[in-house]
Amino acid sequence: QVQLVESGGGLVQAGGSLRLSCTTSGRSFSSYSMGWFRQAPGKEREFVAAISWIPGRTNYAESVRGRFTIFRDNAKNTVDLQMNSLKLEDTAVYYCAACRPIYSPDSRSYDYWGQGTQVTVSS
Known about the structure:
Blueprint: E1 2-7, E2 10-13, E3 18-26, E4 33-39, E5 46-51, E6 58-60, E7 68-73, E8 78-83, E9 92-99, E10 112-113, E11 117-122
Parallel strand pairs: 2-11
Antiparallel strand pairs: 1-3, 3-8, 4-5, 4-9, 5-6, 7-8, 9-10, 9-11
């Protein structure tokens, strides 16, 4: 069993930055691939970024590539999402998720989810 708790959301102006953090508890964090997803009002949940349990392997949605960076710290059991150059369309609830073993942009591959953290980008 893995528990996930997101933090770091908030209100930011367009062009600004935020760093989301996902703290996990449970066993074998280092064997899980981790993902960030988001869901805007009236829209389906969409993939944002993922990081494999294999060091150095990451994947990003085209809409955030070059602006967002995903990190993990296996010693602290955390996975962070650094978000730069934020746009109005980045406004959503952001969710952290865990899957094993291979990371995926498909939310159905993920077994564990956090409760989400709101990110609001204003003009």
